[in-house]
């Protein structure tokens, strides 16, 4: 049987393995054979060793590797965990799209289309579940499906709103200080992604959308209840139609409804079912490619039917539950630096709703937790809601804890003190929301808000004391009280429309909720 010889080649200095009979020994003393035989024996012994097994302990069980390769059981266990982790992160990342997609779906169910919009002539109501809507302004809202071609919007003067893509990124402010029509009214032409067709000769404010689905809302801003009927009629001057119909546009239909509605994000497995549809109905964008790649590993991809097996359905269902729990925690107890999170850091519990950019981009990255907080808690973005423009637009703050840092609960009674001269040119309000639905609180008093439009009663010095609790405290005017529900959590938004300089320079400071009993 030939033996292997190991030496260095003259040309390369590398290992030279030869068998006797095929090479001639160059050693003259014969001792080289002994070394070669011994080394060959060592190699054979190493080759005969059993493969090395490795066990890794993890929070989801033991992982087994044999000879560096995962066992079949480990492969399945790791892919289950990988798919679950990716699905949870996809839930958090896709919240803005999932939320606006659900809003678009409910609009369509109620009849909104290319020529029809919703009009809340009686203001928003608690039986209409929608994230942090107010009961101060008149709302008009709709959906544009741009895959069918460019759309035209004719906007009356004096309204305040926004047009967003399906990711809740503002395409253009409608009305207000940052709108191209400067609150004077005007005609907008909204183009679908990649549109290169002929352009009309008439003057339009051109808006290029990067998604086929776009959602908009407009608000008529009252100062007293007597303004509301006028605002409703003003909103009925709004027009919406396809560019192809511009020569003789059809009438716009205004849909008013008192029925129960649900504009909230779908939950559970339905979250991913509808997300797959929204992904399919809108073109991929460069800024989303990384997360779209993650979704593709879960079976959700543009141009591909969503057909998960039972294993994937189970994973996605659990991921939606965990994702929602994480989103809720990020919203109510965010890990955001206090100087950015709080309106009055170290002094009050009032928190900012926005953090300086309506698409949550910093110079270096996307502020993902700020985006998640907002996507879970509220809806719709606009420059006029973020940027400082004293006397114009709107500003917001939210409070969720009392003076001692305890969560607000419906069984207790609290008081919020607002110093005199609330810095709002148009109106101010304190609106209460159910912390599960993030929608207007439902109560037997049928009033979720206290504010200037709703007849809040000032103290003798011009300040306001507003009460929140299950029953009206003695001596408190009903206009200054919001009824809460025992055993349920809630939070409150302070709205300032036409915010004045004292809000921006923080010389006016509202009180935190003070526990009365």
Provide a quick synopsis of the model.
The chain has 517 residues and is of the alpha+beta class. It contains 10 helices and 26 strands.
Task: Note down, in words, how this protein is organized.
The protein has 517 residues and is α+β, with helices and mostly antiparallel strands. The protein folds into 3 domains: 4-48, no CATH class; 96-262, Immunoglobulin-like, CATH 2.60.40; 333-515, Sandwich (Jelly Rolls). It contains 10 helices and 26 strands. The protein has helices at 31-48, 72-93, 95-109, 227-235, 269-281, 289-297, 310-332, 338-341, 368-377, 501-504; strands at residues 4-8, 15-19, 53-58, 61-66, 69-70, 116-120, 128-129, 138-145, 151-155, 160-165, 170-175, 186-191, 205-208, 213-220, 239-242, 253-255, 261-262, 351-352, 394-399, 414-418, 424-434, 449-451, 464-469, 481-483, 490-499, 514-515. The strands form 7 sheets. The protein has a 6-stranded mixed beta sheet. α3 packs across α5. The protein is globular, with a radius of gyration of 32 Å.
């Amino acid at each position: 049987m030939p033996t292997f010889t190991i030496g260095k080649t003259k040309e390369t200095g590398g290992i030279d393995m030869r068998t006797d009979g095929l090479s001639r020994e160059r050693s003259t003393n014969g001792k080289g054979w002994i070394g070669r035989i011994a080394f060959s024996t060592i190699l054979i012994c190493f080759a005969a060793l059993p493969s090395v097994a490795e066990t890794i302990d993890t929070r989801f069980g033991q992982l087994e590797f044999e000879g560096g390769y995962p066992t079949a059981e480990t492969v399945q266990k790791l892919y289950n965990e990988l798919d679950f982790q990716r699905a949870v992160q996809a839930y958090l990342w896709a919240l803005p799209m999932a939320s606006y997609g659900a809003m678009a779906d409910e609009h369509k169910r109620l009849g909104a289309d290319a020529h029809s919009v919703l009009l809340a002539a009686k203001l928003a109501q608690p039986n209409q579940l929608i994230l942090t809507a107010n009961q101060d302004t008149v709302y008009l809202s709709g959906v544009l499906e741009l895959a069918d071609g460019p759309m035209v919007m004719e906007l009356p003067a004096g309204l305040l709103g926004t047009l967003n893509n399906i990711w809740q990124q503002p395409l253009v402010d409608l009305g207000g200080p940052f709108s191209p029509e400067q609150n004077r009214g005007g005609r907008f032409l909204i183009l679908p992604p990649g549109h290169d067709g002929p352009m009309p000769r008439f003057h339009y404010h051109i808006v290029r959308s990067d998604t086929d689905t776009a959602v908009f809302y407009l608000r008529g801003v009252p100062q007293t209840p007597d303004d509301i009927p006028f605002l409703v009629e003003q909103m009925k001057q709004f027009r919406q139609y396809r560019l192809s119909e511009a020569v003789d546009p059809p009438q716009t239909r205004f849909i008013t409804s008192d029925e129960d509605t649900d504009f909230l994000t779908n939950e559970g497995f339905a979250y991913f079912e509808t997300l797959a549809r929204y992904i399919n109905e809108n073109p991929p964008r460069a800024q989303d490619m990384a997360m779209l790649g993650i979704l593709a590993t879960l079976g959700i991809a543009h141009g591909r039917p969503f057909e998960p097996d039972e294993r994937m359905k189970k994973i996605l269902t659990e991921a939606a539950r965990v994702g929602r729990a994480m989103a809720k925690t990020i919203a109510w107890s965010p890990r955001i630096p206090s100087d950015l999170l709080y309106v009055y850091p170290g002094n009050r519990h009032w928190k900012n709703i926005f953090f300086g950019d309506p698409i949550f981009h910093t110079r270096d990255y996307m502020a993902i937790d700020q985006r998640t907080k907002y996507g879970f808690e509220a809806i719709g973005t606009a420059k006029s809601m973020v940027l400082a423009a004293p006397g114009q637009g709107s500003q917001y703050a939210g409070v969720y804890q009392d003076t001692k840092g305890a969560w607000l609960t419906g069984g207790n009674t609290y008081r919020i003190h607002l110093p005199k001269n609330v810095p709002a040119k148009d109106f101010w309000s304190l609106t209460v929301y159910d912390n599960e639905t993030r929608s207007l609180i439902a109560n037997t008093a049928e009033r979720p808000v206290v504010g200037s439009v709703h007849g809040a009663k000032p103290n003798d010095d011009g300040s306001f004391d507003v009460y929140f609790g299950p029953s009206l405290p003695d001596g408190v005017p009903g206009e200054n009280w919001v009824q809460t529900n025992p055993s349920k959590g809630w939070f409150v938004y302070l709205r300032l429309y036409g915010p004045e300089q004292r809000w921006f320079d923080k010389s006016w400071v509202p009180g935190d909720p003070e526990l009365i009993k």
